[in-house]
Structure formats: C-alpha cells, structure tokens
Design a protein that fits this description.
- This protein has nine helices and eleven strands.
- It has 345 residues and is of the alpha+beta class.
- It has two domains: 253 residues, Alkaline Phosphatase, subunit A; 91 residues, Arylsulfatase, C-terminal domain, CATH 3.30.1120.
- The strands form three sheets. The protein has a five-stranded mixed β-sheet with strand order 4-3-2-1-5. A four-stranded antiparallel β-sheet has the order 8-9-10-11, with helices on one face.
- A hairpin with a 2-residue loop joins strand 9 and strand 10.
- The protein is globular, with a radius of gyration of 21 Å.
- The C terminus is likely disordered.
C-alpha cells in the first residue's frame, strides 16, 4: 500500500507497531514508507526501553527510520505526538500515515494517577485495560483535532479499526454478545470496530450494515488517490467508498473468508450465513441475523448450505499458498521472560 501511494506522489509514514518482519529487507523504509518511528516487533514496555544491544523484544530500543532510539513518557502518548508531528510537517503535501498503536496490547501498564478515570471498575486487570483504551482514544482525538486545526479535515479520509477481538483471558475484556476472542474465527475474534470519516462526503453518524474487511482499505485508498495496484498479485479488498456513500446498494463482497492455524480453522461469511470449521470437528453453520452469538449450529438442519459454503471455501483456499510457518504452541512460554510484568503500574 505504501509503495503504491508513494508512486502516486504521497509522503508515506508509519508510526507505531510494525510486526511485519524484523530482518532488514522487511523494514518499513524498504516497504514504501518514507518515514518510520516505532517498535519493530509485536509489543513493548510502555515506560522504558533498554540501550542498543538489548535482544528481548519488549525492551529493545524503538527505531526512527533505521536508527535506534529510546523514548521519554508513556508510549501511547509518544506515538500520538509523533503522528501529530508527521501531519504538521507534511500539511502542504499529500500524505499517507499508518498509525499503529500497540495499545491496549499487553503488558497492561498505566500510570497510577490515570486509574481514577475508571474508578467504577473493581477488577484491577480490566481497570488497567480500560484506561489504556481511554488513552488511545485521547490520542485519536488529538490526531483528529490536528487535522481540523490545520484545515485538513475536508481533504483527509480517516480509517479507525481494531485488528482483532479482545483477548478475554489476558485483559478481562468482553466481546459480548459475540462468541470467541482474539485468535478465533468466531465473531468475537474477527468482528471489530471499523469507523471511516470523510468530512463533507460521508454523512456523520451513519451505520453501514454490510460486512467489510480491513483488506478493503488498500483498494479504497488507491482508488481515492487515483492510482491502482499491480494486477499480480490481485487484491481481495474492494473500494468501499461507493458503498459507504450510497452510490452502490449491493453488498461489497459476495463472501468473506478466514483461515488460521495452517488451515485447520476456517470460516466463510456469505450474507447472513456463517460456516465455521474447527479442526476435524463437524461443520458449524450459523445465521448471524438471528444468532449473533453463534450458539445454534444449523449444519444438520441446513446441510446443503453448509456444503455450499464449504465448497466455496475450498475454491478460495486453492488460490492461497501453504503457510510458510506456524507459531509454536508454546510461544507464550518461550516469550514469557521477555515480557514485563503484565500488571506493573
């Protein structure tokens, strides 16, 4: 996405979590981004980093482009400041900013004085998680205020979304009334907040009920930039702007697909129907319009629909490459020593 937009004359920047490869040829600066500041791995201590030479992922220095750098303050606030700085520096240019907060990812760390914002929550784990979400919301608000102050809001499209459902056991978050959590292909793992703002074009407060996916963002952005992606490889996403604006009334996608665990776990969403495969267990089939919690398996009463979606998935999956690697089952145990105390306040 950054390469395509850079080719269309955009200044491209990423602030925050990368987690798309730590070896040199995967670095953001070699993937189309002009500017980078953030954590190259999957998580980080929110208050400190160690000097260069540290190898434990959660303590390594951050990077500004390809130079190691530590930070002062609370990491979520620091990332917000960097995003605001990027916007101010490039206010007179076309820019694309990918702001990837690591909050509210573990470790659940927050300054003690901020806990008063959620004094009504008794559970200390959930309380820390909630404040981290509040601080993230503050940061998003500052980014939006910066666009407004610089008179850029009318010309800037903002996408806001989460990458997965809440990891209930770790954060004591809740995905109710959805079933499942982070890592699951049930709705609790894949259905997330997805907000799009384009002042003067999209009507404020509108709810769009048809399924969309994060993969639509690159295709939408390229269309708005009046450019396109190379034909090979193709994109699964579509330009959703005509659908959000009401120009098109049909659903953006005939079906959506998910695959994880080396293909052992999979799901297909087609209209109101959802097919789920969990390893060698029998097919699961749900009607999401009447059972958003995926509690009533309808595969036996609707075998033809289950077979149709299973066949649809197989045809889609034949176009995918096999998994290049899988996370080891004991990943958490191996990474444990590298993580700070998850409740260090």
């Amino acid at each position: 996405m950054a390469q395509v937009l850079a080719g269309a004359g955009y200044v491209t920047g990423v602030v925050g979590k990368w987690h798309l490869g730590a070896v040199p040829h995967f670095h953001p600066n070699r993937r189309g981004f002009t500017e980078y500041f953030g954590l190259i791995g999957g998580g980080h201590d929110y208050f400190r980093c160690n000097p260069p030479g540290e190898t434990r992922e959660y303590y390594i220095p951050l990077q500004r482009n390809q130079t190691e750098e530590c930070f002062d303050g609370y990491l979520t606030d620091v990332l917000t400041q960097e995003a605001v700085s990027f916007i101010k520096r490039h206010r007179d240019e076309k820019f694309f900013l990918y702001l990837a907060y690591n909050a509210p990812h573990a470790p659940l760390q927050i300054a003690q004085e901020r806990l008063s914002r959620v004094a009504q929550i008794d559970d200390p784990v959930r309380k820390s998680y909630a404040v981290m979400v509040c601080v993230l919301g503050d940061g998003v608000g500052k980014v939006w205020d910066t666009l407004a102050e610089l008179d850029l809001a009318d010309d800037t499209v903002v996408f806001f979304l989460s990458d997965n459902g809440g990891p209930v056991e770790v954060t004591h978050s809740s995905n109710a009334p959805l079933r499942g959590a982070k890592g699951s292909v049930y709705e609790g793992g894949i259905r997330v907040p997805f907000v799009v703002t384009w002042k003067g074009v999209l009507k404020p407060g509108t709810t769009y009920d048809q399924p969309v996916v994060s993969l639509d963002i690159p295709a939408t952005s390229a269309a708005m930039a009046e450019t396109s992606f190379p034909d090979d490889p193709g994109l699964d996403g579509v330009n959703i702007m005509p659908f959000l604006s009401g120009e098109k009334s049909s659903p953006p996608h005939a079906a959506l697909f998910w695959r994880t665990g080396g293909g052992r776990t999979a799901a297909v969403r087609q209209g109101v129907w959802k097919w789920v495969q969990q390893g060698k267990h029998p097919d699961e089939l749900y009607r999401l319009d009447s059972d958003i919690g995926e509690s009533q398996n309808l595969s036996k009463s609707n075998p033809d629909k289950a077979k149709e979606l299973r066949t649809l998935y197989a045809a889609w999956d034949r176009e995918n490459i096999p998994p290049l690697f899988e996370s080891p089952p004991n990943l958490k145990k191996k990474r444990g020593p590298a993580r700070p105390d998850p409740l260090a306040l």
